[in-house]
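**User:**
My hope is that you can spare some time for a protein that puzzles me. This is the protein in question:
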Amino acid sequence: MILGFIGTGGITEAIVTGLCVHGNHQDKILLSERSRFRSKRLAEKFTQVQVLGSNQAIVDRSDWIVLAVLPQHTLAVLAELSFRAQHKIISLPAGIRLETLSTHVHPVKQICRAIPMPPIAHGLGCTPIYPPDAEVEALFARAGKAMAVTDERQFTALGASSAVMATFFAWVASNARWLEAQGVPTDDAAFYAASVFHTLAAMSVNASAEALQRMSEKCLTPGGLNEQVLRGVKQARVIETIQAQIDGVMSRLQSAE
């Protein structure tokens, strides 16, 4: 199976890296020249990666095609391409519904959407797939986990909920900088701040929302340090603010669709 990518941005690099390093992917991967530095770097790093001169050349020589361009460019890019009925298409751009995709990739019938995130480069994270496709799920499961989704609105909600990455990294960075301000060496500050968040996230895997809430409550010793911070966070409505922004992202994605 030859896998071709239309668009060579950061998420393409993450997927290719995850598949080749953690997924033992040996089949050929075709990339476009756009973002030449990134595609050239991947081709030099992985022998199964080849760079082609045009998107149509990638389509012509691929069995599966991953659309990895910006949402606002997707339909214009598709309008310039000709597909075969045998193609399988995996679309990554947010806000482009399956129904819309199908009208722009005729005569292709095998189409699905996916939400891979940067941790896939490290063999981590969960990639939602809509509609369920066992072959596509197996591909992404080689570099993390895959989640089959049967409802497109739920798929959109998963995409909206993942828009917390920048906020998360900013929070960890703020914690590290605060430690530095207290005199902790820079490397130690960053390592400790990241370690705290990493271990807490590891404890959260596979826990339900109710279980996570109980885990929070178990940290709240009356008059304790965790209680003080959480009380301040609630008074400032930090959690509510983040959730309101996610609501806004959901509305934005639905509007785009």
